[in-house]
Amino acid sequence: MTEKYTALYDEHKKLGASFTDFGGWQMPLKYESELAEHHAVRKTAGLFDLSHMGEVWVTGPEAAACLDYALVGKISAMPVGKAKYSLICNADGGIIDDLITYRRAEDRYLVVPNAGNAAVVAAALQERAAGFDATVADASAGTSLVAVQGPKAQELVLRLVPAARHADVTNLKYYAAVEVPFLVNGAGLELLLARTGYTGEDGFEIFVANQDAPALWQAFIAIADDGELTPAGLAARDSLRLEAGMPLYGNELSLQGDPFAAGLGAVVALSKEGDFVGKAALAAKKEAGAGSTSGRHLVGLKGQGRRAGRAHYPILKDGVTVGEVTSGQPSPTLGYPIAMAYVDVEYSAPGTALDIDLRGKVEPFEVVDLPFYKRAK
User: Fold this and answer.
1) How many domains, the chain?
2) 137, CA 20 to 30 Å: which among 54, 229, 237, 362?
3) 48 and 114 inside one domain
């Protein structure tokens, strides 16, 4: 596979980043310390390059109907300016990807899939648009995505937005987006600003053309005082999203899983009019009690000791395997091991005592509600 590089790759090299492959992209894993980057996002703000994510535009008179058919949610009910978390499933109800859709106009939507699934999702949307008066255009190759996450995120964004437009930022609700000018290189660069994120903190994701991404990145670093803004890599992003109880495709979500087992049943709009891909299979899974009375269910696990479980470690009850860890590590914020895992539904209630087999050594854990961490509001 040919390695792919974001438009910010040279910026990361200047900052001394350690790189890792993620979905075929060379992405910054960390700069100096993933723990310092994690704590910075919780206490001040972190600056992330998310340009490996996909951006697919669906436009036209029947764009809403097309997305209602293509995705499991009722996208047509979303007001202009808002965003919605949803899933794209196959005919068997398996999860192809989880994604966010932004409604930018009555007939114009931006779909943002995960990095490794971007091409697959774009192709699936193209295929599912057949028969609808809608156009699917994959803009991923020319689009970068920069995120500012943390308690100081809004303050930092306001420093780059003209004062006359500050209300557009401060009034922006969670899972909403607006186009605002950013003062970059002395010019007002009109960019799409979304109040979304993957860290459990307040924050923003900013869509920018590749050619303007380095200037935007540099502008954020330039306007931040010492300690206010820390470039952060994928390692911190993973520990932050785990504390926030947010699933990662390839860990908690997959083609072999289903929305009900993953605790995402509310995302599936079985009651919406008309058919959608996977509807019959998902209705049958729900009727069979998937994730509630049968199969396995995604839970949070809190360690009672000091050692952390990792992905694929077996989960035991009285020495018998009843589940498997999907993500796990010591929580930098909370100070104890945490994990997300699929366990047999009869052992999924909060308070249930379970063990994780850490390569031959059994460690005690307890089922807890997700998320592990909630920010103070």
Assistant:
1) 2
2) 237
3) no
